[in-house]
Amino acid sequence: MKRIRRELAQPTQAPAVAGNTKSEPVLTIPLSLKPMEAEQVDELPRGRGWLYEPKYDGFRCIAFRDGGTVHLQSKKQKSLNRYFPEVAAGLARVKAERFVLDGEIVIPGQSFETLQLRLHPAASRIAELSGKFPARLIVFDLLAGDSGPLIAHPFADRRAALKAFVKTPGFSQAIVLSKATRIAGEALNWLSERGHGLDGIVAKPLDQPYWAGERVMQKFKIWRTVDAVLAGYYQDDATGTIDSLLFGLYGDDGLLHFVGHCRVYNDAADIAKLPQPLKDGSGFTGRAPGGKSRWTGKKQKMVSLEPRLVAELSADHIADGKFRHGSRLIRWRTDKAPEDCTIDQVS
């Protein structure tokens, strides 16, 4: 069994949240708390000891309410308050004055790209988008309430407390309880909702406390295979090595459109030799990859290739004709012509 983190075993006072100048007691769960994570599995675990929930395609968020102050914390310990003011306002209207919720910020009925538009520097643009496409916080765990922290309690107790908590007066449409089931077959049927923001299924052990930062839950996704054309790669400027391979598919317009990337982990030295004869080729003739990493914000150097190599890839989430996440390289397809790799595979 994993060790409970020191801050959970011996809770200390959280650092003061900006704007909180009252002398009332503060939450004993620190703002530095990391969300509990999930390990990817090929099959859902079965049995009475598991609860299944949808895995939503959004921004993970731990929401703190301490008196009159609300703090929305991202997975990377960044404040999300300015980007989702309607969610912060909804939490501020809850009658309970002190609580910590774990959840996912989503925009119902919209793609992940619409959600990403919120990460904008202009407050006026954020206000416009929040009115046009209001976000919701789908909550799936209660880590603390007015009565104190719950992180040491088993998830079965925390889930029961959460269901009671969302019935507290003052809840708005900005806060939604995640659906859940004890039946694995019912959870698998949810995968038909993948086009509506569902990214898979998360299985949670009912007897476990909240293991901050640990992979205690299990996540299940369905992977699709796509034959795509290698048209470029991102190069690590520091080492000169290949960071990601970039793949495309031909559209009805005859152009080669970017659909996704594949990180290079295994057999990196051998893979690095393959594109060398193809350097300075035509690359993507249609939609091209962006110049900045959405994860680091850093400019990425793309090397264009002559589109001759075909690979069979496995992707877990395809939306708007692109891979939502990185793909897996299964094998090279020397038996398939690049022009036969068409975009109807991801439509």
From TrEMBL:
Keyword Ligase included in the entry's annotation: yes
Source taxon at top rank: Bacteria
GO biological process, one term: DNA recombination
GO MF terms, alphabetically ordered: ATP binding; DNA ligase (ATP) activity
Enzyme class: ligase
Family annotation (Pfam families): DNA_ligase_A_C, DNA_ligase_A_M
Record domain ATP-dependent DNA ligase family profile: where: 46-221
Catalytic reaction annotation: ATP + (deoxyribonucleotide)n-3'-hydroxyl + 5'-phospho-(deoxyribonucleotide)m = (deoxyribonucleotide)n+m + AMP + diphosphate
EC number: 6.5.1.1
Domain DNA ligase ATP-dependent C-terminal: 239-336
Alphabetical UniProt keywords: Ligase
Region (Disordered) location: 1-21
PANTHER family, sorted: DNA LIGASE 1 (PTHR45674:SF4), DNA LIGASE 1/3 FAMILY MEMBER (PTHR45674)
Record-linked NCBIfam families: PRK08224.1
Family to which this protein belongs: Belongs to the ATP-dependent DNA ligase family.
Name this protein carries in UniProt: DNA ligase (ATP)
Native source organism of the sequence: Neomesorhizobium albiziae
